[in-house]
Design brief:
globular; putative 2-phosphosulfolactate phosphatase; 39% helix; 5-stranded parallel β-sheet; homodimer; alpha/beta
């Protein structure tokens, strides 16, 4: 099984995903939010690229969530925050989510055979799902402000480590994958501390959102692996 | 001191280097070749971007060296190989060098206040030189085939590690720099093995150039730090 790791959404082209399993990572915070919302009983998360699309997608009962530059969008119900999602009732409601990089990364990968949503929160379950799907894999680290984000790299390395343990044949990784595996192995016991040193971690701490870092730094809290699926014209993430 | 690390030459824009010290890394093999040629007594290495420029720059006594896709260019004296440079007499001769990524990376950085040429071979000396120059630093990993190359990332991490030891104030690294520092720390005792697992390492092994990997994997063999300087219209690397 071949695995390619892409360092940020700007580095990805949609053709790279054809015939592959795509794994999208945006630890701080889009994919952590999607996993958390579904674990809390949301009926599905609709990732959209723009504020306008978010408003257009909203139906009665839906929660409108999203951020620009780490802050909640004016008029939206919630930001892009696992902490807020846990404090509000999302049970049996759809979440419409737009974020700077994460939802854009999900849309970039739609030519893949399967699109899985990963974060530290569900890494082992996601690694198992990817191995079971028996396709070559492209791991897309969404990044932040068009640049590599260390928390996404850590999560990519954790996925690779788990996939290596699970798979029957050795993984063939590209150079960036090899580097991310080493990053994870070197920092495995200091994940939260490493994330707090990264650019997005520092920005969230400054904005008083340290609780989101705590939540998003947890490994394997959830067993659900959200998949992107088409429901008519709407793309929706769910664990079913 | 702020340090930014760029993952491949395609990610770099020349404006990023203004007022900075640029450190250019292409372990396999352009910067290792430049350092080796100068250590062997070459009077200077002229990095050029194209085969045509190489031929135009050649004066009597100069050695014409370069590669495309790891192979020597037809009609050139030598490839881009530290091994070949050591086996031939470069003493007091200029080397005109064109390579796929490394020489392109050097030209991309010319708006920097200082341009230093680094590889594993001179990492500690280069880290000291960069700290002494007291500018913010941009480390450009040239990469291979427009992608990140693990040997360049390892070298960036080694430089960061040495700069941290040398500097009086803590380094402020971007997320990619933090990741490369961890990569180096995790692989410090297996440098050659790691390089052999990377895409360029595998390609060189297949082409029978394993000896170049051995030479380029050595740490701190040389104390010279080549700098790019203008000599009239010609840009030339030398340790003077």
């Amino acid at each position: 099984m071949q695995v390619q790791v892409i360092s940020s959404v700007n580095e990805a082209s949609s053709a790279q995903f054809v015939h592959k399993t795509a794994i999208i990572i945006d630890v701080l915070r889009a994919t952590s939010s999607i996993i958390t919302a579904l674990a809390a009983g949301s009926s599905g998360v609709v990732p959209v690229e723009t504020v306008m699309e978010a408003r257009a997608a909203q139906q009665e009962g839906d929660l409108l969530c999203g951020e620009r530059f780490c802050k909640k969008i004016a008029g939206f119900d919630l930001g892009n925050s696992p902490d807020e999602l846990l404090l509000n009732s999302v049970k049996d409601r759809r979440v419409i989510l737009t974020t700077t990089n994460g939802t854009r990364a999900i849309h970039k990968s739609t030519r893949a055979d399967y699109v899985l949503v990963a974060a530290l929160l569900n890494a082992s379950a996601c690694a198992k799902a990817a191995v079971d799907l028996r396709r070559d894999v492209v791991i897309l680290c969404a990044g932040s402000h068009d640049e590599f984000a260390i928390e996404d790299g850590l999560c990519a390395g954790l996925l690779l480590s788990r996939m290596q343990e699970r798979g029957s044949a050795p993984l063939e990784m590209d150079d960036f994958g090899l580097a991310m595996l080493s990053l994870y192995q070197e920092r495995a016991n200091d994940i939260k501390e490493t994330i707090r040193k990264g650019a997005t971690g520092k920005r969230l701490l400054k904005l008083g959102m340290g609780r989101d870092i705590d939540l998003c730094s947890e490994v394997d809290t959830f067993a659900g692996v959200p998949r992107l699926q088409a429901n008519g014209d709407t793309l929706i993430c769910s664990c079913s």
